[in-house]
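Hello again,

I reread your note about wanting to compare the complex against the isolated chains. To keep things tidy I'm splitting this into two emails, and this first one only covers the full assembly. Below are the input lines as submitted, including protein chains and any nucleic acid or small-molecule components. They are followed by the predicted structure of everything together. The single-chain runs will come separately.
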Amino acid sequence: MIVPENQADGLRKQMNKPNAIHSKKALRCMAIASGKGGVGKTFVSVNVACALAALGNKVLLVDADLGLANVDILLGINPEFTLQDVIFNNKNLTEVVYSSGYGFDFIAASSGEKDMVNIGNLRLDSVVQELLSFASNYDILLFDCGAGINHSVTSFIAAAPHTLIVMTMEPTSIMDAYALMKVTKQDKLSDNISLILNMVRSDEQGQKVFNNITKIAENYLFSSVNLLGMLPYTAGVHRATINRKPLVILDPDSEIANRIKTVALKIMGQQATPISAFNTEALVKGIMNIGDPNVLE
Ligand SMILES: Nc1ncnc2c1ncn2[C@@H]1O[C@H](COP(=O)(O)OP(=O)(O)OP(=O)(O)O)[C@@H](O)[C@H]1O
Ligand SMILES: [Mg+2]
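Full-complex prediction:
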């Protein structure tokens, strides 16, 4: 397929020049997770990436889920190569970065679990170093994590300086979001947890749930939770999926699009982390365990 000229194309040219890497010393980075599946992580990832790009940021969205994840479906792009091609098939990172067509770039993933045992840690280490060097050309790095609370998800949470937990109003989603917060706190994976309440039927309902979760987190986890946004349940999301376009592009003046823009502005207000402070070991583990079916207790 023809991919429009993108940041990656520019970077491809730049990367051939010496000293092009680590052009930025710090970047904002978030792991987007949930525990329960199907709550809107990929919808949020794609639309927040889009909104951030529209606000002038260079954004790299990394699919930290299996290749059958929906990033490509939502964008109408079928990536030929994935991050695993860099690890196993000697592809260069610049060859697996695709333009979304909406001002941000993305890298797809596929499961490498089976082959991971045969790959040396050194190779993975060098891929992760390469990934961070590459990401340093961007302002914001987002990991769209898979469902479940497994070693991949917890590792991406440990690797990313900020965690965004997406939850809906369903009791199972609330319980899983809390379980994920608990693991994150108890295992000291991250100090910065924010929440997005998605598919909210009314702000009153969302606020009630948020108040409850805040109380529980303060009482049992000794931790405060930051509310990044409440996104309404709307048929517009379905329409956007059918059109294979991000909602913020298809329906830019809708209530939900405006709320996503506010989320993007809040992310821009977060502190950037020096590339040198990233937990590369956790990032290696996260990538190594993509598609891990084992749920952590
Ligand atoms: N605010 C919303 N209103 C209506 N439908 C929504 C909303 N957010 C997401 N959806 C729908 O919910 C479904 C799940 O969304 P999505 O694929 O983004 O979830 P996910 O958490 O990434 O799932 P998975 O855990 O499988 O990766 C999709 O059909 C999507 O269109
Ligand atoms: Mg998803």
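For quick reference: Residues 41-42, 65, 69-70, 144 surround magnesium ion (ligand 2) (CB under 6 Å).

B.
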